[in-house]
Amino acid sequence: MSQQSKAISGVFYFLIPNTGDWKEKSRNFLIGLAVVLIGSLLIVATFIGLSVRSNSGIGLWVIGYTILCAFVILLSSAYRRYKISENRMTPRRGWLFIVIVFIIIGFVSAMVGFFWVPESEGSLSSALVLGGTVLGIIVILLYEGYPLLEDRGSPGYVTLAGLLIVFAVVYMTAVSWWIVPFDPTELDVGPYGAPPSDRFPLGTTSLGQDLLSRTIAGGGIMLQVAVLSVIVCFSIGVPLGLGASYRGGSTDKVSSLIMDSIFAFPGLVLAIAIAAMLGPGVANMALAIAVVYIPSYFRVIRSQVLTIKELPYVEAAIVLGARDRDILFRYILPNVLPSAVVVMSINFADAVLTAAGLTFVGLGLPVDVPDWGWDLTFGSHQYIAGKWWVISFPGLMIVILALGFTLAGEGLNEVLTPKLKE
Fold it and tell me: What's the pLDDT tens digit per position in 268-315?
């Protein structure tokens, strides 16, 4: 493919086929352009409609500011691509330029939020920084793409769709407190268990809370637990699998025995037992989930290392006198990281479902915190009475978030594994 044809990237890059006449390529491109633009406009219109009726009174300004940040990032990305096409900037410096733009936007957003509503104690600053950054990432994914996704076919579609779903939910959660029509924690804002209506589009809960506000803001705790648990799993499982399998002997046998013992327990049952001992809290929930999924990282990394350390280039490094540290971090770790990234992306979906399960059985945060798991818990008692909306919308959001992480993980698995491409 010529360099000129690669000027179109992002989702449009995937939609242009390798074969076919110009009419077919133009038609596919226009269809893709229409789908992306119409979908983007519908989502933006939905957020603007919510922000107009926001309880905070500044929801429209928050949405407008984050859109402005995304527009600046889009212009910066177009400028970077132009400089690269003119051979005035290397691709590595181009991505460094984008990172610097993100840092500047984050700093400016923090200052704007701090001086705009100082009494918010940093919540507005966090919303502007995270919202503007995530919306900028969505724009780059749509219109710029990413080097890992340049392979055409279903892996690119699946990965891009999963990442867009995840980042859309993260953006909604980041700005949720400033665009919701009612306070998600407030009781008696409407009739008890009322069905969807004009004032309450998703209905109300059995405590008179607005279900739309709780659905928009309910993903914060679940995302925090998922991210923290995955970080703990990755930080412990990867080094442990790397070091134990490379060293071998009794270290590998003992580590494998411990991991297999943990893996033998049903995941949700073990997480419930650990969470019951630790008590409620985001950190405790994340730690309970992390203990369950550390063996997944260990087993994947161990199997990779046992194969890689017998390869000729590793044996050559050993013969030449390379230190164990250099062999691990320069020759083995770069080859096992793609597998660890795939496990991490899939682990996000498992962590979301497990966090919802812990909250459902009463081991989550207090009931006054908006959370999809709590809404499922209370909604399950109302569902028998025919109040389907109380449980349907929080459950749908959990499914959508888990689906996004699953699609991203499965797509990355095919993109990062050469054998699966064949």
Answer: 888 888 888 888 788 888 898 888 888 888 888 888 888 888 888 888
Largest CA distance in the chain: 77
Which residues make Cβ contacts (< 8 Å) with residue 366, sequence separation at least 6? 280
H-only helix segments in 363-388: 372-383
Residue with tokens 């989502």: 43
Residue 25 pLDDT more than 60?
A: no
Provide the token pair at 50.
């919510």
CB atoms within 10 A of CB 5: 10
CA angle, residues 162, 168, 173, in degrees to nearest 5: 130
Q: Which two tokens stand for residue 398?
A: 């959990």
Q: What are the structure tokens assigned to 322, written together?
A: 């390379």
d(CA 375, CA 183): 15
Residue 54 sits at the vertex; the CA angle it makes with 50 and 58, to the nearest 5 degrees, is 110
Closest to 375 in 3D by CA, of 358, 361, 395: 395
Q: How far apart are the first and last CA of the chain?
A: 20
Q: What is the Cα–Cα distance from 65 to 29, expressed in whole angstroms?
A: 30
Tokens 């013969």 locate to 319
Measure the CA–CA gap between 318 and 333, rounded to whole angstroms: 16
CB contact set of 289 (below 8 Å; sequence gap of 6+): 225, 226, 229, 271, 351, 354, 355, 358
- pLDDT tens per residue across span 72-125: 998 898 888 888 888 888 888 888 998 899 999 999 998 888 877 766 545 888
pLDDT at residue 13, rounded to an integer: 45
**Residue 376: which pLDDT band, with cuts at 50, 70 and 90?**
confident
Angle subtended by helix axes 267-278 and 282-308, to nearest 10: 140
CATH class of the 218-421 domain in this structure:
mainly alpha
Domain boundaries, the chain: 5-179, 218-421
